[in-house]
Amino acid sequence: MPELPEVETVRAGVEKHVVGRTVATAEVLNPRAVRRDLAGPDGFAAAMAGRTFLRAERRGKYLWFALDDGGAQPSRISQEDLGAQAEPPSEALLAHLGMSGQLLVGDPDRPLSPHVRARFTFADGGADLRFTDQRTFGHLMTVPLVYPDDKSRVVPEPIKHIAPDPLEDAFDPKDFAARLARKKTQVKRALLDQSLISGVGNIYADEALWRAKLHWARPTDTLKRSEVSRLLDAVRDVLTEALKAGGTSFDALYVNVNGESGYFDRSLNAYGREGEPCGRCATPIRRDSFMNRSSYSCPRCQK
DNA sequence: ACTCCCCCCTGTTAGC
DNA sequence: TGCTAACAGGGGGGAG
Questions:
Q1: Which end of chain A is more exposed for a tag (fewer CB within 10 A), N or C?
Q2: In this predicted structure, which of A34-48, A130-144, A253-267, A279-293 has the lowest mean pLDDT?
Q3: Per-residue b/e over A85-120, b at no fewer than 16 CB within 10 Å?
Q4: CB-contacted nucleotides of strand C (7 Å)
Q5: What are the backbone dihedrals phi and psi of residue A37, each rounded to the nearest 5 degrees, phi first?
Q6: Which of these, A199, A186, A191, A213, lies nearest to A269 by C-alpha position?
Q7: Is the CB of residue A254 less than 8 Å from the CB of residue A248?
Q8: The pTM is what?
């Protein structure tokens, strides 16, 4: 389900409702939810107990929450340590929502839905945090925080290969253009390649290509400089507008990932609009089969 | 080293 | 009404 705007909405919700709080218990209800965590379900749950959420961060479609060390400090503190600055967090809870994942914050006594895969309660006795995921493509894991090759920013070790997303400072448009030019692939595949540019999924790829008037199958090495910058502007614009317009509803006790209502009906120009008139030229939008999915485009605007 | 495709799941819906 | 097939917004891993 979620692409960058939806994941950012979730990040902001967790930041507001969970950061600063200390986990009392962690429970894994479906082991698939932590399949990438080497410690397994029990190890994951044990590792999370007693940890405090320090920050809520995001790159592309990945979320992570820096954790304190859980009170595992040495019992005797040396003079050097007393004078030293506090160590930056070295570990985090990494989350990917996959196709259907949600992070929900709410009354700890509310009924457990059948799709809850993991649950965290907090030492303050307040709202709990539930990882809900119908299709179980999403996952959680505890991970070390490291510097990626570009040293731009500390990120979880397993996502070192994920490129900066176009809304973060570390994103370098020149570097993107250079790498794009070297690729031998179609422009839509490149937009979906999270190691080249992150945060864009099938919907926003189609929307950005429509805005930039580019055909999805266009070979990347034939794109002119002006076309690349047009594309990048379109990507940034559509993500930014979706973030604003799609502001998913969540109240004090609820973080909602469902961005379908509201934004989708009003603002999509291509995605899911097969047969409907193009907003620019009224030509019916066409649907092509692409990577076992769909690609929507205007046959007239996007040659 | 790169690119591409399969496949991990469950639920909904269109079509017969 | 009930069955089946297609499809759904992701990404890792391995084949080529």
A1: C
A2: A253-267
A3: eeeebebbbbbbbbebbbbbbbebeeeeeebbbbbb
A4: 7-12
A5: -85, 120
A6: A213
A7: no
A8: 0.92
A41 in Cβ contact with A34 (< 8 Å): yes
| Tokens found for residue A3 | 């692409």
A43 contacts A74 by C-beta, under 8 angstroms = no
pLDDT digits (tens, 9 = 90+) for A128-147: 999 999 999 999 999 999 98
Locate A147 and state its tokens: 């510097």
Q: What is the CB neighbour count within 10 angstroms for residue A173?
A: 14
pLDDT digits (tens, 9 = 90+) for A42-75: 999 999 999 999 999 999 999 999 999 987 554 4
- What token pair was written down for A264? 């989708």
The pLDDT of residue A85 is 54
Q: Which nucleotide is nearest to A259 (CA to C1')?
A: C9
Measured distance CA(A150)–CA(A140) in Å, rounded: 25
| Residues of A involved in catalysis | 2-3, 61, 293
Q: Which amino acid is residue A185, in one-letter code? A: T
Taking the C1' atom of every nucleotide in all shown strands and the CA of A190, the nearest one is B3
What is the strand order of the sheet A155-156 is part of?
A57-59, A62-67, A91-96, A139-146, A155-156
Residues near strand B (C-beta below 7 A) are A 32, 99, 114-115, 134-137, 182-186, 189, 291-292
For residue A37 the two structure tokens come to: 């965590």
Over residues A234-255, mean pLDDT: 69
